[in-house]
Amino acid sequence: MNILMILFTLIGGIALSAQSSINGTFSRKAGTIETTFLTFFTGLLFLTVMILFFGQGNVLGILSAPKWQLSAAFLGTIYLLLTVIAVPRIGVIATNIAGIIGQLVIGIVIDKFGWFDSLVIPLDWKRLVAILFMIIALYFIYQGNKRSTEQSKS
């Protein structure tokens, strides 16, 4: 089952990169906030159909959830909005790597302190080295993107 979850996540990552690129291009025509709105509106329609036909949970459970848990919806919106802004300016891969670095950094903090009822996983040098390599990768990718952009302008 873990292999299947890794495959699902891999496919999700592919979809996310494709969406980032398409949204970045689309935002030039429709606007950043409008593009983000369209994404969430389409998601609302799609998930409404999914809930009607396949839902097994309790939608009204939203009303009894702790308020801090509802912040996840806002955080997802912020992520998408910032991604739509960044992609046309720094490219898809630089945007995604920066997003992944952010995820890894906050993931390390969440794991270390066990926030949000997660496992407590100590911070070790391997995790710090992994973050450092990601930052180095971002630097080289961003520099390559800048060079390509400058060459295409001349």
In short:
Pfam families: DMT_YdcZ. Keywords: Membrane, Transmembrane, Transmembrane helix. By secondary structure, the chain is mainly alpha-helical.
Detailed description of the structure:
The protein has 154 residues and is mainly alpha-helical. The chain has one domain. It has helices spanning 2-30, 32-54, 71-90, 92-113, 125-153. Helix 1 (2-30) packs across helix 2 and helix 1 (2-30) packs across helix 3 (71-90). The longest helix has 29 residues, at 2-30.
Biggest sheet, open or closed, and with what strands and sense? none
Q: Number of helical runs?
A: 5
How many domains, as an integer? 1
Q: What structural class do helix, strand and pairing data support?
A: mainly alpha
**Judging from the principal axes of the Cα atoms, what is the shape?**
globular
Fraction of residues in β-strands: under 5%
Helix and strand string, N-terminal first? Answer: HHHHH
Report the mean per-residue pLDDT as an integer.
90
Report the C-alpha radius of gyration, rounded. 19 Å
Which descriptors apply to this entry?
mainly alpha; transmembrane; 154 residues; Transporter family-2 protein
Secondary structure elements and pairings:
Elements: H1 2-30, H2 32-54, H3 71-90, H4 92-113, H5 125-153
Helix pairs in contact: 1-2, 1-3, 2-3, 3-4, 4-5
